[in-house]
Design a protein that fits this description.
two-stranded parallel sheet; 34% helix
Length: 196
């Protein structure tokens, strides 16, 4: 019979021929989430998360697609590793930015340490649970990480880039069934934004 949910009913009380396990029909929806297609089960159903790295002008430098349930923090280093910016003069392209500004979702001690090892400054507010954990440890909790609130105000540039990308209807609601098509649409949209 498979993982399909089937309900039989009449005008009286509904009768179930086969009752799925706890969770309802989520097994059939989860079966649609093919590995590597950037589809993930979240509260709203199948969804895709777009991760962007932009420059200070709001131009996309790198785009990653992940399933909707995927966390933001593990995507920081793959996002930064794929960026190569040409220098003004001769020489190899730059692969290391001076600073990364991100929201609280990316604020994890492992991310901070990885960026510190690469000699990249990181501007992100600390999450509330991290503040509470450090306070609970008392003097052993250490100092809070450096945070520049004025510099953090520039983070709205990435939100504006997302808003411009969502003007393309295919990207606002993912019509593409394959991740390669969705990534191609994103790439074309970012090229159009670069040319404007």
């Amino acid at each position: 019979m498979g993982d399909q949910c089937r309900l039989l009913g009449s005008t009286g009380s509904p009768a179930r021929r086969w009752s799925p396990e706890k969770g309802g029909c989520t097994a059939t929806v989860d079966a649609l989430a093919v590995e590597g297609e950037g589809l993930g089960r979240s509260r709203g159903g199948l969804s895709t998360k777009i991760h962007l790295a932009v420059d200070r002008r709001g131009r996309a430098l790198r785009v990653l697609l992940t399933p909707g349930r995927a966390g933001d923090n593990p995507q920081v280093l793959p996002l930064l590793d794929g960026i190569r910016v040409a220098r003004v003069g001769p020489g190899r392209p730059r692969s290391r930015p001076e600073m990364v500004i991100a929201d609280k979702a990316y604020s994890h001690p492992s991310t901070r340490q990885a960026l510190r090892d690469r000699k990249i400054r990181f501007g992100s507010p600390e999450r509330d649970d991290q503040i509470a954990r450090r306070a609970a440890r008392g003097s052993r909790g250490g100092r809070p990480p450096a945070f520049d609130a004025e510099l953090y105000k520039q983070r709205n540039v990435i939100e504006r880039c997302f808003n411009r990308l969502k003007q393309f209807r295919d990207l606002a609601t993912r019509y593409a069934k394959r991740a390669a098509y969705d990534h191609a649409e994103l790439t074309i949209a970012t090229i159009i934004l670069w040319l404007r």
